[in-house]
Amino acid sequence: MSLFWLPQQPDWNAALLEARKRPAREVAPRFVALANTSIDFLQTAKLDKIVQQCGDDLRAALTRTRPMKLALLGSSTLTHLVPAIRMAALRRGFWLDVFEGDYGMYHHELADPSSALYTFQPDVVLLALDAQHIAGGNGASAEHSLANLTACWKLAQEQLGATVIQQTVLPVFAPLLGNNEQRLPLSPFSIVAEVNHRLRQQAPQAGVHLLSLDTLTQDEGLKTWHDPALWHRSKQEVSPRMAPLYGDHVGRLLAALRGLSYKCLVLDLDNTLWGGVIGDDGLEGILLGQGHAVGEAHTAFQHYAKELAGRGVILAVCSKNDDANARAAFERHPEMLLRIKDIACFIANWQDKATNLRTIAETLNIGLDSLVFADDNPFERNLIRQELPMVAVPELPEDPALYASTIAGAGYFESLSVTKEDLERGQQYQLNAERNRLRESSTDMAGFLRGLEMQLIWSPFDSVGLSRITQLINKSNQFNLTTRRYTETEVAELIGQPECLTLQLRLTDRFGDNGIIAIIIGRPAHGSETDVLELDTWLMSCRVLGRQVEEATLELIVKQAKLLGARRIAGFYLPTAKNGMVKDHYGRLGFLQTSLAEDGSSSWILELKTFEAKPTFIQIVEGTLDHRTDLREAH
User: Fold this and answer.
1) What is the pLDDT, as a whole number, of residue 551?
2) Which of 107, 290, 409, 585 has its CA 20 to 30 A from that of 530?
């Protein structure tokens, strides 16, 4: 099965028939659960057909993020991939509308503003060009193909305002020379290799994301992905049997664009991070490290987890164990790669794991739908799937040597970029633990806040912070007043606009740097109210809540708004499934509510002439970390 990390459900067809009898409110989670099983091409098509029949009712019931629109443009037959792409979105809890371009007409549709593509107005354009189109014709060259692709990127970005995903080229051609094919640079085999190589160089610079189809063939082989007979009969470059996996990889990218990738890997201990049961076998008896195949497999899994932590994935432990025994392995076993300092939240007790996972999410201040739970025990995996269906639970195989490849293959932690803050995330959570210890030792809140010695460092948007700013805009869900998403190109257009307010805010304290923790976008109101600055975007990291950052940020916004000539600030709250925590944000800060709609959205206004900043223990500084000063006095 191509979706090997998902559990199989023997009574899948019966469950589908039962689910479709339910009203939309109840059927949505059942359909999501069915999509989260190891379904094949035919099951995918069957589920998609029923889901599409439910239409608007189901669309309204999927509220993890607002619906997305994807345009699938290519040069071969793509119809058989559409159900799998839609079901990959359903698997992640959101609705996806797909526009399939006419066969081979991708460039015409992109260039013609009167085409159906422009009527559709996609959020994302996926360019899926086949190898024959790229390198199979007379006079084909890498330069010509790349020029064509970059022209398409520009049309999609500038004319449609869409994010672009570019599919790399399947290496379907037989080599003409053999092992030294690079000596024949104009062979189709070499052209495909060169195009893929240069795509990986040029796409990041153009703000384009890649669907790395060529590398996907490495695990299961090109013959699994591509059937020459199907190509000649129906021009299907990707085999239908691999459509579910193809669709899932598209779904991962779309989820990452919406900030729906998972954030935390929660690890069981016994027979997951090591072989054996530490409570029974003792520290010396567990299998870990060199000299034993099982021990080496568990060490390899720890190495993979540590590498994930290095790129920004949070690690946590959830184990039914005695706490002292569990910690002993991390503290004293010589072959243990992971240490206590690598674990952001460590829970080892005898409570049920669903309760402990709730505690982990609460402690880390992230949603349950940000957790991936890795446990060797089928009973525990099934329990979590039933009790906490929003938690991702990979179906770990019996052989621990396959744990890492299973989690990697599932693509839970798909990311479109890596920023400095990503690389420092593990350290930031460790510093948060030190802050919490200070809070527990402080006799009052004011003493705790004063002791943090906080500094809020701000600057307008700039090219240096562009990647991180865009990432935050598209990943932040909870403390996000409007949850509007912008591409990197759209964010770049705001840089240097004198009439707009753009702020990126970094919070430091005596323990270290919290990274960029807030993004503000303000625009002048249209029409007669020219003295009003409208807050288009206000988002913040939940890690810094309760430290007066909201009040200090408003003080900064007011100062900058006055410099822009504003007399009033308008704020807006647009409700989503995740941002209920900021429903009363503007009211708490002293804004006057001016409207409240039936869907819960609201408008607010703040008169600047009567505004008085609330005192905080935060010093506001324009500049960079190099300008840090003594923060012992609160302003």
Assistant:
1) 96
2) 585
| 8 Å CB contact between 42 and 8 | no
Is residue 433's pLDDT more than 80?
no
Q: Which of 13-17, 438-442, 517-521 has the highest mean pLDDT?
A: 517-521
Choose which CATH entry (3.10.20.600, 3.40.50.2300, 3.40.190.10, 3.40.630.30) describes domain 444-627.
3.40.630.30
Tokens matching residue 443: 């006799």
Q: Give the pLDDT confidence score for residue 440 in this predicted structure.
A: 67
> What is the CA angle 112-115-117, rounded to 5?
105
- State the pLDDT at residue 633: 29
Whether pLDDT at 501 is above 80: yes
Residue 520: closest CA among 563, 476, 566, 489:
476
Q: Tell me if 66-257 shares its fold with 444-627.
A: no
Residue 494's pLDDT band (cuts 50, 70, 90): very high
Model confidence at 529, pLDDT cuts 50, 70, 90, reads low
* Mean pLDDT of the 549-558 span: 96
Among 89-98, 279-288, 411-420, the least confident range: 411-420
Confidence of residue 241 (pLDDT cuts 50, 70, 90): very high
Q: What pLDDT, on the 0 to 100 scale, is given for residue 208?
A: 95
pLDDT band at residue 631 using 50, 70 and 90 as cut-offs: very low
Structure tokens at 226: 């591509």
Q: Are 585 and 486 in contact (CB under 8 A)?
A: no
Count the neighbouring beta carbons within 10 Å of the beta carbon of residue 32: 21
Model confidence band, residue 635 (pLDDT cutoffs 50, 70, 90): very low
Q: Which tokens belong to 310?
A: 């290095």
Task: Tell me the C-alpha distance between 100 and 127, whole Å.
Answer: 11
> CA-CA distance, 520 to 460, in Å (whole number)?
9
DSSP E strand boundaries for 305-383: 314-320, 345-349, 371-374
Closest CA to 164 of 124, 109, 110: 124
Q: Which CATH number fits domain 264-410: 3.10.530.10, 3.40.50.1000, 3.40.1160.10, 3.80.30.20?
A: 3.40.50.1000
Better pLDDT: 22 or 308: 308
φ/ψ (deg, to 5) at 347: -125, 115
Q: Which CATH class is domain 66-257?
A: alpha beta
The overall average pLDDT reported for the chain is: 91
Q: Where are any strands of DSSP class E within 356-399?
A: 371-374
3 state SS for 283-295: CCCCECCCCCHHH
CB of 472 closer than 8 Å to CB of 519: yes
| DSSP run (H or E) holding 222 | helix 222-225
Is residue 441 classed as helix, strand or coil in its secondary structure? Answer: helix
Q: With beta carbons less than 8 A apart as the criterion, state whether 593 and 603 touch.
A: yes
- How many residues does the structure list for the chain? 635
Domain segments of the chain as ranges:
66-257, 264-410, 444-627
Compute CA 273 distance to the chain's CA centroid, rounded to the nearest angstrom: 26
The secondary structure of 49-79 as a DSSP string is: HHHHHHTHHHHHH--SS--EEEEEEESS--G
Distance separating alpha carbons of residues 2 and 248, to the nearest angstrom: 10
Q: What is the CA radius of gyration of the chain?
A: 26
The pTM (predicted TM-score) of the whole model is 0.82
338 vs 327: CA distance, rounded Å: 11
Amino acid at the residue 434:
E
Pair 477, 578: CB distance under 8 Å: yes
